[in-house]
Amino acid sequence: MTLETLRSAVRFIVFGDSSNTQYENTDLDRNINLWYKTALSWILPINGDWQVNGSVATTDIEAGVRKYQIPTDILKLNEVYIKYGTSSEYVKATQRDPKNISVEPDQDTYGYYPETPEFDLKGDYIYIYTPETTIAAVTAGLKIHYQTEITELSSTSDEPNLAEPFEKLLIKGPAYDYPFIDSGKKRDLKREIYGDPTIKNDDGVKGDLQKHYATRSTVRRNKISPKVENYF
């Protein structure tokens, strides 16, 4: 749905009239975007191999340089891969334990050369460590898999990056937030969003959203086959 469609749907729930603009665009758009961010916050801790708002950034490794700026739109870091001088392929890097670091990561004089690539994070920077005694220049040698901040909906034609069945959260949530909505409607909306406590296993749209994003990729899921035994 576009932002314009979401606005109309919210107003129809609140007023029974999609053209009623008492719920002004400024307030309505703010609440739609707040619920968009809320949906993402519910997804991030549990999304599986197929990340929402997933992105990949690469940068060249410069000779002798350990410190690189991370992407400015990063929300959650997923994986880091490093291709170093003696490696023809990317190797997954592990994050160093800060408790085992005795000096600042940008001090390059203490001779730490791990068997496989490692990295540190400090502020807006990532520090890389490779098995080599001297970091070699490698084109696109640092690859970062991460999840980005959402881009807020602002133009009437903008669409949220959510699976279509769950765009209704961006309708029900802002309707629930309207301060003058009928109390009965407000109660019903809350149950639709979070689940009806009187119904077993009803987790509402929130629960359905989390289940979907936790399991939408089954590529690496183990296949379970029934055991067949012949008793004759």
- Give, in order, the helices and strands: HHEEEEEEEHHH
| Biggest sheet character | 7 strands, mixed
First-last Cα distance: 59 Å
- The Cα radius of gyration reads 24 Å
The geometry reads as elongated
Q: Which strand order spans the largest sheet, edge to edge or round the barrel?
A: 1-7-3-4-5-6-2
Brief digest:
28% of the residues lie in helices and 20% in strands. The chain is elongated. The protein starts with a helix and ends in a 17-residue tail after the last helix.
Write the layout of secondary structure elements.
Layout: H1 3-15, H2 25-43, E1 54-61, E2 67-69, E3 74-82, E4 91-95, E5 118-122, E6 125-129, E7 138-148, H3 169-177, H4 183-194, H5 204-215
Parallel strand pairs: 4-5
Antiparallel strand pairs: 1-7, 2-6, 3-4, 3-7, 5-6
Helix pairs in contact: 1-2, 1-3, 2-3, 3-4, 4-5
Can you put this structure into words, describing what you see?
The protein is of the alpha+beta class and 232 residues long. It is built from five helices and seven strands, in the order H-H-E-E-E-E-E-E-E-H-H-H. It has helices spanning 3-15, 25-43, 169-177, 183-194, 204-215, and strands spanning 54-61, 67-69, 74-82, 91-95, 118-122, 125-129, 138-148. A seven-stranded mixed beta sheet has the order 1-7-3-4-5-6-2, with no helix packed on it. A hairpin with an 8-residue loop joins strand 3 and strand 4 (91-95). Helix 1 crosses helix 2 (25-43), helix 2 (25-43) packs across helix 3 (169-177) and helix 4 packs parallel to helix 5. It is elongated, with a radius of gyration of 24 Å. It starts with a helix and ends in a 17-residue tail after the last helix.
